[in-house]
Amino acid sequence: MRSSPRRARRYAAALALPLAITLNALPALAGPSPDPVPPDRASSTAQNGVALMRVVVADQSGVDKLVALGVDLAEYSKPVDGGVEVHAVLSPDEARSLRDQGFDVRDAISDQSDYAANLAERRQALASASADATETDTLTPLRAEWFTSLDDQRFLSVEVKTSATDAQTVLTATWDSGPGTAPDSGGTATMSRFTDAGQYMYHRFNAPLPITAAPTTVTITSNRGGSITVPVTKWLGEPRKAPSKHYVQDFVDHYMDPTEVTGRIVALSKEFPKISEIVDLPNKTNGYRRQAQAQFGTGSGSALASTFYVTSKAYGSEGGNDVGVALVNPGTASAPLSVAVNGKDVTVNLATDASGTVTSTASQVVAALNGSSAASALLTASLYRTSTGTGVVAAAPATKLTDNLKAPASVSRQPFQMKALRIGKSRNGSKTGVFLYCQEHAREWVTPITCVETAERLLRNYAQDPDTRKLVDDLDIFIVPTINPDGAHYSMYDYNMQRRNMVNYCAADAADPGRRNSWGVDLNRNFSVGSVRDGYNGGSTTCTSDTFAGPAELSEPETRNEVWLTEKFPNIKFAMNTHSYGGYFMWPPGAYKTAGRETLPRTDLGTEEYFWNASTHILSAVQGWRGTAIWPGRTGPVIDVLYSAAGNSADEFWYNKGIIGWDFEVGADVYDQATKQYLAVGFQPPFEEGHEEAMEFSNGQIGILEVARAYDKDRQRPDSTLVVTGRTDTSTTFTFNVDEPANVYYTLDGSRPTLSSPKLTSSGMREGAAKISIDKTTEVHWFAMDLAGNVEKNYKPDGNGKNYGKETVTVGGKP
Prior knowledge:
The protein is α+β, with helices and mostly antiparallel strands. It has 5 domains: 93 residues, no CATH class; 99 residues, Sandwich (Immunoglobulin-like), CATH 2.60.40; 331 residues, Zn peptidases (Aminopeptidase), CATH 3.40.630; 110 residues, no CATH class; 90 residues, Immunoglobulin-like, CATH 2.60.40. The chain has 15 helices and 39 strands. A hairpin with a 3-residue loop joins strand 5 and strand 6. Helix 5 runs parallel beside helix 8, helix 8 packs across helix 9 and helix 12 packs across helix 15.
């Protein structure tokens, strides 16, 4: 599908937006330091004018400096005139501070008006879906025809419109084999939902279905309850080319929160119990919940010393929101400071001097609240940030504490049960496993609907599409559409730029209500390989950083669930972590140490070539939807095409489990024909664009499954040859050519080669095989082995056979 002019204009307008400063100023970014605390984002509702901004730096060192400053960078980078363009989530003060430090901060890609439009669009879609679900839908037949084309092959074409227009409405067609035959004797097929410019048109087959006999009637039934039977007529128009297969797709029509997404995969498992099941992951998340809080004092200027805040012991949803605090001037002289509690109402009677003037300081009030057994059972009091607590507090009316969470009641505040949808005809561990997972980062709204789309395609195409049947029959597929449910709920309902989960590990000086958009753990920095605690770059140990790696490796239930899945099901050999945005296709290594750019060990030559070969197939599948081409410069190891991401999940699985892991960044730049420029799409593009991204990268996920199946079925042994690449009087260089991605093991001392022998290495990044140099005539022994374990000539490296490659390489006249 092509990019619409309306969307292109919207992006072009976004590029021209000035930086709007509409809210009160907050502290600016700290100066360069190893790990400064970033500034506040004062309100979950107003979000302090936060926008997704362009920043241009001279080179990668500039990107590293931004990371070190704790700047919230998107997973996006591209070369431009003058250096490298990256995107950052910035408040007005953050943008100002970066400019003051010499950074080239440019215009906004998206701001909160885009967020509001997305939510309005989503509410409309949900309302429509809810209305559709309350009653049986009405089906209106548009066409039902059979025709003959090519070699007298018959085809069936049906078009039907339903009154239930949401993507969860599924229509199935069943037809007979001619007069007097059973109504279902001809066959059955699921119909595709056809939309144009974002609008539902009708259901149809993507291409006419080949049939063996001309039917007389076709019956269309809906999962909403509607049903209709219509006659099938012969079409006398122009013949159409027969399709090679029938395939159903396009099952998402709005952004979904984790509650919806999880409900969707549970419903799918119930609808297709023979080929799918739900796997409950063992570690529940902390939940979409927070302690309730209230702040007394403004926390700025001279008022800083008199500012404090209180935090409920219970979560807001479990009683914390019912706690209230009042600061009362007793109106009498020489009154002592005291605390009274009535139920959940806490009253602080402030102290006064002989003239009746309040004398209680913030420190004294905090101490009194924490020292009262009745009050401290309900709440904890803390000084505000760097406050000395020496300022006198002012009386304040009764104030209810609040957790500030805005999600509707349909979103549970309890720990979330993460689930994986397991798809496969044989789910006993005997088939090659593939792990597809989405939304490690909360604000990446396109990714969960990508995983949902892939699940729908696999299950709904199984009965009629032979290629899908092969994938489901020959693989063991695990799909987790939302790895970060708590953070994603928060992103959708409270602060759309939330990246992390919702756990608050901050101490009191960073845990006041104004910091609530800066809490949480970056799940894709919380793994145990190449982590910030091992000295790798790209993670943070500061609790308010958007790349905060957590208090320890694998501290979070979400990341432990990912690891558990790969340990519980050791047949998992492939994984795909789907992120957004920028249009990338990447693989390990994903982290390096800044000093000397010391990387995690690069994959061996055979594996690297396998990654590259597979990318051709997978990215061709992505391109097949609407022509999006992932750029060569955005394809390769993470550290080569993006940046260092310490403690990411793909590295965890590759280095600890040998799982071939990829990373997608959906949301490739959209080319605007009018301006002849590529436009970045952001984390939450208008759904029209988000839908297209989900469709094309679901294609890519299917492509990964096809690669995995080819691996599972690979019985072809590699074939290699020794190639002399250069000679001098005193030395000869040579290498090996292999007819497929494979590793070559060799010896130069006449011994039998084994898996412990030297392995042919890479000459350098994207430079192909290294050349081996010898200074005397040498008999070289070698064999090749591909990633599926097929060994050249069926040689047994651990046996006694001699059927390895042998060749004498001469050097000058030396013996």
